[in-house]
């Protein structure tokens, strides 16, 4: 941190791993969303858990896209740029890419379909997949 009392800006290094402060903040948000999803699932709040899982994946994807100096302003933009930089190039596996897409589709159902119902077992599977997705992004950021 500089001599001033201001927190690091987006271009300042947030830690010794070379991540920017914005990437660190986004990964912290992803971790918090995963933690929230676990708590919600423990209380059979599957629709709310799905929402938090999607945002865990979304925030991790945003952190990854920042590697390329890009900060898309929409969910579709993040998804497109993430696919371009990480899926197309093989830096992230196709199964992880499917996890991100599945989390988005399930979140849309959970948030916008008044009659959506999610069973605990498949929702728990998605939680495990999203946790692996976030971990894969973390590994990329730490390279």
TrEMBL record:
Keyword DNA-binding listed: yes
HEPN domain ranges (all copies): 25-138
GO molecular function terms noted in the UniProt entry: DNA binding
Xref: InterPro entries: HEPN_dom, UPF0332_toxin
Keywords assigned: DNA-binding
Similarity annotation: Belongs to the UPF0332 family.
Protein name in the entry: DNA-binding protein
Species name: Longibacter salinarum
Lineage, top ranks: Bacteria, Pseudomonadati, Rhodothermota, Rhodothermia, Rhodothermales
């Amino acid at each position: 941190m500089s001599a001033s009392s201001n927190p690091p800006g987006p271009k300042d290094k947030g830690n010794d791993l070379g991540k920017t402060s914005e990437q660190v903040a986004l990964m912290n948000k992803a971790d918090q969303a995963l933690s929230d999803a676990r708590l919600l699932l423990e209380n059979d709040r599957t629709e709310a858990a799905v929402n938090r899982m999607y945002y865990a994946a979304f925030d991790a994807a945003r952190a990854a896209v920042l590697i390329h100096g890009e900060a898309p302003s929409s969910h579709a933009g993040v998804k497109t740029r993430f696919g371009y930089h990480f899926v197309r190039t093989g830096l992230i596996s196709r199964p992880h890419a499917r996890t991100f897409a599945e989390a988005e589709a399930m979140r849309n159902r959970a948030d916008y379909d008044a009659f959506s119902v999610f069973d605990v077992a498949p929702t728990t599977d998605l939680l495990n997949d999203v946790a692996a997705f976030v971990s894969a992004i973390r590994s990329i950021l730490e390279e």
